[in-house]
Amino acid sequence: MPVAIALDGPAGAGKSSIAKRAAKILDFIYVDTGALYRTIGLAASRNNVEPKTSPEIDKLLSQITVDLTFNDKNEQIVLLNGEDVSGLIRTPEASMMASAISAVPSVRAYLLDLQRNMAKSHNVIMDGRDIGTVVLPDAKVKIFLTASVQARAERRYKELCEKGINVQYDDVLNDVITRDYNDSHRETAPLKPADGCVIVDTTELDFEQSVEKIISVIKENI
User: Fold this and answer.
1) pLDDT in tens, 161-179
2) Containing H/E element for 183?
């Protein structure tokens, strides 16, 4: 029976990079659910659809397809209507749009089966905001990964700079603070630690130490 690991946490906690490395070491499939919301956010932006206009969002969802696939290195590729948008959804604007779009109940319902089906057929480490609370409440291991706001903003800032994206630290910090508030106060599936989860704070840990900590928690609980 496939093993599911749920990894939740706030923006900039390093979930994606840490989960990706841990999955590679453990020979699991890594599923970045945030990329799915970013992809629908990208579709909304391209079609000038505001996240709060539910009828327009519902119409948009009926007109698009969002799929996950993996290359020969088990790296996730996100497709919007067959187009690989994996690189287009990593901007601060896409991040904020994802936060807004993820508050729409019909969007969450639209993606729920896609996420659950991945866990039914593969050993997965799945990261997001509500994996342990909503998507995979019966996951074998649930982890809530967090760090201070300042640490998360600094990591996100460095990541964006390394990708050649021109941003200011203060703007990234404000984005993280805003997203924290939006994610934890939305009506549908608000960000919070799942029942029975292990909380891991990586404020004082570097990347490799964070990966080692996550793998240690997983091995102790499966």
Assistant:
1) 998 988 999 999 999 999 8
2) helix 169-185
The letter for the amino acid at 203 is T
Annotated domain spans of the chain: 4-221
| Per-residue DSSP letter, 222 | -
Residue 29 dihedral angles phi and psi, to the nearest 5°: -85, 130
Single pTM value for the model:
0.82
Backbone angles phi, psi at 104, to 5 degrees: -85, 115
Is residue 44 helix, strand or coil?
helix
Closest to 2 in 3D by CA, of 32, 34, 26: 26
Q: What is the 3-state secondary structure (H, E, C) of 75-108?
A: CEEEEECCEECCCCCCCHHHHHHHHHHCCCHHHH
Dist. CA 206–CA 203, nearest whole Å: 8
Domain 4-221 has CATH 1.10.1760.20: no
Confidence of residue 153 (pLDDT cuts 50, 70, 90): very high
Which two structure tokens, joined as six digits, stand for 64?
């698009």
142 is written with which tokens?
């649930």
Instruction: Please list the helix, strand and coil fractions of the chain in percent, rounded to the nearest 5, in that order.
Output: 50, 15, 30
Residues 211 and 221: their CA atoms lie apart, in Å, by 16
